[in-house]
């Protein structure tokens, strides 16, 4: 639109210049001598050339200004986007920390209950051993019951290890989010320092570094089944 | 006299579960919170078996294993790694560092006791 306006202005100026040069010929209604006609045409041509040069110069300044505005706008958009993503990642990290804290608290409570139950089971086992030593008839049944309790306790011991397994998974996810947040921050810094043409190269380089730094989570367990054992 | 086991893990819940399992079976258990603590305690009081996690702050399990293997009393002592990691690359690294065995968490208490009895009786 702006360039159309400049061209329209140029056309108007050219037309006015031409009319100005042609006016004396119409007013005096006489055919001018050929040198004057040639001079008039040359003046008209030079005038048009000057107007065209001026219009092109104005168009270029307008385009440069528009590009600069677009560059600022894209930097602002990148800045805004990375800021939002950074904030969201920080919130996600905070939430993961809360989950970790909740797990820790739940584990403490479970451990306290477990210690109490296991102490009671241990006391009963001692009492049963004493009964068995006396040859009391119910000792065998009580021993079988004690074996069942021992088996249940074994299952509980395995299940209570969830705190460690889940905690490591959460730690890995938090580390990934922090690495992504740092990559976003570097993109924002790059957008503030480099012109658009270099941005694509910088961002590609940062993404490559981020991909190379990513490590696979060491925790592959999906369920709390017993892990494998290997003696070397 | 009861055999003694050094249990090294930065997770309090794992140390508690390991200690409960081994003490119930009659073993003496010494706990350490990371590789550096484990190394210091191993130097102070020789143990019959070391059971260690891998991913710990300050000093990880494999670094502690390598350091223990350099100590005169631990050149051939059984050292088991108890970890969430199950990759072959890590296991090979553990074997090269001098570990005796590799157990993946969560451990089955019965299975753990079988392995411990196998290596130290």
Could you list some keywords that capture this structure?
heterodimer, A: 232 residues, mainly alpha, B: alpha/beta, Rossmann fold, 45% helix, globular
Give a structural overview:
- The complex is a heterodimer of chains A (232) and B (121).
- Chain A is an all-alpha fold.
- Chain A has 5 helices and 1 strand; from the N terminus they run H-H-H-H-H-E.
- Chain A has one domain.
- Chain A is rod-shaped.
- Chain A starts with a helix and ends with a strand.
- The mean pLDDT of chain A is 78.
- In chain B, helix 2 packs parallel to helix 3.
- By secondary structure, chain B is an alpha/beta fold.
- In chain B, 45% of the residues lie in helices and 19% in strands.
- Chain B has a single domain, classed as Rossmann fold (3-Layer(aba) Sandwich).
- Classes of the chains: A mainly alpha (232), B alpha/beta (121).
- At the A-B interface, helix 2, helix 3, helix 4 and strand 1 of A face helix 1, helix 4, strand 5 and helix 5 of B.
- Strand 1 of chain A pairs antiparallel with strand 5 of chain B.
Task: Detail the topology: elements first, then pairings.
The complex is a heterodimer of chains A (232) and B (121).
Chain A lengths: L1 H27 L5 H101 L4 H21 L2 H32 L2 H18 L15 E3 L1
Helix pairs in contact in A: 1-2, 2-3, 2-4, 4-5
Chain B lengths: L3 E5 L3 H13 L3 E5 L2 H10 L4 E4 L8 H9 L9 E5 L4 H10 L3 E4 L4 H12 L1
Parallel strand pairs in B: 1-2, 1-3, 3-4, 4-5
Helix pairs in contact in B: 2-3
């Amino acid at each position: 639109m702006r360039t159309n306006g400049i061209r329209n202005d140029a056309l108007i100026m050219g037309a006015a210049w031409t009319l100005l040069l042609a006016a004396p010929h119409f007013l005096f209604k006489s055919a001018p001598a050929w040198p004057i006609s040639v001079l008039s045409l040359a003046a008209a041509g030079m005038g048009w050339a000057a107007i065209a040069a001026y219009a092109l110069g104005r168009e270029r300044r307008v385009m440069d200004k528009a590009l600069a505005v677009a560059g600022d706008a894209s930097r602002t958009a990148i800045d805004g986007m990375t800021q939002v993503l950074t904030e969201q990642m920080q919130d996600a990290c905070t939430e993961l920390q809360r989950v970790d804290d909740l797990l820790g608290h739940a584990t403490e409570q479970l451990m306290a209950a477990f210690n109490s139950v296991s102490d009671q089971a241990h006391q009963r086992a001692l009492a049963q051993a004493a009964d068995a030593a006396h040859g009391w008839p119910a000792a065998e049944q009580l021993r079988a019951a004690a074996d069942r309790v021992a088996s249940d306790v074994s299952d509980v011991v395995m299940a209570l290890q969830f705190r460690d397994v889940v905690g490591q998974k959460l730690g890995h996810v938090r580390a990934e989010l922090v690495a992504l947040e740092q990559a976003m921050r570097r993109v924002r810094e790059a957008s503030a320092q480099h012109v658009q043409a270099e941005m694509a190269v910088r961002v590609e380089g940062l993404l490559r570094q981020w991909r190379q730094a990513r490590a696979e989570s060491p925790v592959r367990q999906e369920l709390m089944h017993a892990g494998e054992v290997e003696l070397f | 006299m009861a055999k003694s086991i050094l249990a090294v893990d930065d997770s309090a819940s794992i140390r508690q579960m390991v200690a409960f399992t081994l003490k119930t079976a009659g073993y003496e258990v010494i706990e350490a919170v990371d590789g550096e603590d484990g190394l210091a305690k191993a130097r102070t009081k020789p143990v019959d078996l070391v059971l260690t996690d891998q991913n710990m702050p300050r000093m990880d399990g494999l670094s502690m294993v390598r350091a223990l293997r350099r100590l005169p009393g631990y050149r051939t002592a059984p050292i088991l790694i108890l970890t969430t990691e199950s990759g072959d690359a890590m296991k090979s690294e553990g074997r090269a560092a001098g570990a005796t065995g590799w157990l993946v968490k969560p451990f089955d208490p019965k299975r753990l006791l079988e392995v411990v009895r196998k290596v130290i009786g």
